[in-house]
Specification:
It is a single chain. The protein has 195 residues and is mainly alpha-helical. It contains four helices and no strands.
Length: 195
């Protein structure tokens, strides 16, 4: 079952795939800023929910540890009862004591194994959750960086084109307005300077 973050990333990738390519470009696309902003907002809103879900998984570590403690205590209680029964018989008191110690040691060993296993499983879940979140954020960073790079390149081309148009307009204006030196030498038949 995929998470909502994965679904949003899939939607973002599908949206990027569905965008029209930029004219005369095989690597650039035209994106609708509102649509991509909405997808990014959704992703930003869902990320805390996913993180809470993984924190809940990690918090199950406590339940596993508590269960292990309860099992250990039950084993210890059982060993204590058994020890008390053995001690009540004077002739086998020493044997009972040794058996009780063995049961207690076994119970403590089993309890420690259960606790160690629960701790390792909880740590593994925490690392997997952190890795998953890190991977998803790295993918998102890559997508956003690509969008920024594409937008920056488009902006630079627009500024370049506007500069060329400005230069052309200025050139045309100069052609329409002769300089003062050109006008000083021109006189019409009446002796009046042509303006």
């Amino acid at each position: 079952m995929s998470s909502r973050i994965e679904q949003l990333i899939d939607e973002l990738e599908e949206y990027i795939e569905s965008c029209k390519p930029k004219f005369m470009s095989s690597s650039e696309i035209i994106v609708n800023k509102e649509e991509i902003d909405e997808l990014l907002r959704d992703l930003r809103m869902k990320t805390p929910d996913e993180i809470r879900r993984y924190q809940k998984i990690i918090s199950n570590k406590e339940a596993i540890l508590n269960d292990a403690r309860a099992k250990a205590q039950a084993l210890i209680d059982e060993a204590t009862v058994h020890t008390n029964e053995l001690i009540s018989e004077h002739e086998i008191m020493q044997q009972a004591y040794e058996q009780a110690n063995g049961i207690v040691a076994q119970a403590a060993g089993q309890a420690q194994e259960i606790l160690d296993k629960a701790t390792m499983e909880a740590n593994e879940l925490r690392m997997q959750a952190a890795k998953y979140t890190e991977d998803r954020l790295a993918e998102l960073e890559s997508i956003v960086a690509s969008a920024i790079q594409s937008s920056s390149a488009n902006y630079d081309r627009l500024i370049g084109s506007l500069g060329q148009y400005r230069d052309l307009i200025q050139s045309n204006l100069r052609a329409l307005r002769p300089s003062d030196e050109d006008l000083d030498g021109q006189v019409d038949g009446s002796g009046i300077d042509v303006i």
